[in-house]
Input
Amino acid sequence: MASVGDLSIPQRVLLGPGPSNVHPRVLQAMSTPLVGHLDPTFVELMDRTQELLRFVFQTRNKMTLPISGTGSAGMETCLANLIEPGDEVVIGVNGVFGTRMVEVAKRCGASPVEMRAEWGRVFTPEQVQEALDRCRRPKCVALVHAETSTGAWQPLEDMAAPIHQAGALFVVDAVTSLGGCPLEIDNWGIDACYSGTQKCLSCPPGLSPITFGQAALDVIGRRSSRVQSWYLDVSLLGNYWDEGQAKRVYHHTAPISMTYALCEALSLVKEEGLAARHARHKRNHEALAAGLKALGIELVAQEGHRLWMLNSVSVPDGIDEAAVRSALLNEYNIEIGAGLGEFAGKVWRIGLMGESSSQANVLLLLESLEAVLAQHGHPCQPGTAVQAARAGYQ
Amino acid sequence: MASVGDLSIPQRVLLGPGPSNVHPRVLQAMSTPLVGHLDPTFVELMDRTQELLRFVFQTRNKMTLPISGTGSAGMETCLANLIEPGDEVVIGVNGVFGTRMVEVAKRCGASPVEMRAEWGRVFTPEQVQEALDRCRRPKCVALVHAETSTGAWQPLEDMAAPIHQAGALFVVDAVTSLGGCPLEIDNWGIDACYSGTQKCLSCPPGLSPITFGQAALDVIGRRSSRVQSWYLDVSLLGNYWDEGQAKRVYHHTAPISMTYALCEALSLVKEEGLAARHARHKRNHEALAAGLKALGIELVAQEGHRLWMLNSVSVPDGIDEAAVRSALLNEYNIEIGAGLGEFAGKVWRIGLMGESSSQANVLLLLESLEAVLAQHGHPCQPGTAVQAARAGYQ
Output
């Protein structure tokens, strides 16, 4: 067993809402001795990382880089750079992360126009149009691609038209989706997007990949007030990250080791290929869903809009959800997530993200869950869950 | 040679302004497989990390934790949580980091009262009193303990009295000082302080340890406006980090691996002992200074106020400073830093921080610098620098 300080660190199978398990090559990258943040080798690594980020984001945006903070820092980066006090911002709220965007937007001085849907349901272009119609001069529309709190998968392909028609920018939270399902920044007309490293990219948490298109940069260029955060000011960050610069302008000391890890994790994504990686996430999700169904456990997100990488599932009646999670963790070393907010106590969140999305993990989880549920008096025929999942793989 | 992606990563001796070299045990911690951010093991590690941070900060402050960003995020955390629009804030400006604090404070809506000194010089309690006298109702006074851009060491022991007398809070930037020279949060009456991991703690960059005392928390509790940054809001962060909580409230996904690394790095500090660690930094600084003097190279910071961990030194007349730095990097794998701002082109910044502060590194640098300078036509008697340094060790 590994140890840190004098604490033993167990080997977990991470099937919660992230972090996901990390490939040994990425762990190896984390432990590579450091170079300085202005070392020519590191500058080359920055360029490489940006290229790979453009690949996974499917974009040509020059302003594509990792923010030195977690996904929530990416959220704040997108909103703080685009919003000026008094701006109208349409935000889709159907879970924790839409709610968080409203909170962050308010702290940036915006007047958020909340577009609401039940938890687990998604928005249609018509609903977006309706929300835009309620605005005088909407600055942007922000949607969560993959709501980690509900497992709902928001379609984005047909959203840019009404948003751009209204003169607004299209902002997307892709924290949980990037690297696990299709996301096409340029083709879908997304103007600004942020993600996280610890979900489908299977890199440790600590960085937030972002991308800004020209229209978003133009809006930033026309600001009449300064971006309220110096740390997250993309114009300043661009002076350090922009490979067109003859000389990198020091902003803050980049998280060297995390950048190593991200570069290696992105290399693994590229080696696998986006299509193959997405197909793998889909396959494992479907097998898991089949297995859970055999246990009488249903997915709670809107049918046809269920994420491959994050499965929110109903806790069977009469089952103490926390006790089951504890048993999985303590007896089987498997982490699954609890419900958040409205879903607290009612759902489990089972992540199959990046490296964690594998046939072995699906079967291991189903077998373990079946055993734990049986101990808790939930009736299940031994082996049926795994059998149903195995059928899904054939 | 290590590699990341398909890039070879050289082994550098890091003698610049940070990052410093990282102990193998810390690199090992970085590569430890991940657990979740709510895993009981991680929660225990958080407690351990906070205890160790209180030890290095010499404080009993409950609100002592690592911010999920680099030192500049720590700066923004201290200022954004304490400042409300219109607040008067006295800031000592004698280098890049005081200048940065003014910029950050302005973005928080403050009216900064700049207290200026020449680059390389420090402030006296009388100057602080004078600046406070110019204010109507000063909210805080912010000073940089170790100005990484100049090598100046700001005395802090006698500052709290005039500051508290004026009803203001005492805020300190200890990015470069923490773990390398005495810093006593409680004894010196410091109300809020931030640091970085990649300097004298010899942990990779990516986290910023902060500490807030009760007076600062009381000021935050009486705010009439929300903290402008959700990501850096210490009240929310406290709900996740506070070990008194029966249940940790999820805020954002903590950077797991970086927290492993910080915990291990802090354990190493504790094993060495603060007094021994400080003495080591002092000894190596003095030997370096003696060796540089033999090369005709002088320290530029005010005499009696020179940092042990960061030596700003004058570039000899007629020497192309960038060419020398390149030669050290490319031929000897040694990184030293360039001058910033006013000091660009005129000084080198030689760091002896944490693991990088060793007799071997001092001698290696002096020998290499002597050889490179000789190639560039700078007259030096071979061996004199190393000899002078060696004498300092006896």
Summary: The domain at 2-16+273-393 of chain B is CATH 3.90.1150.10 (Aspartate Aminotransferase, domain 1). The radius of gyration of chain B is 21 Å.
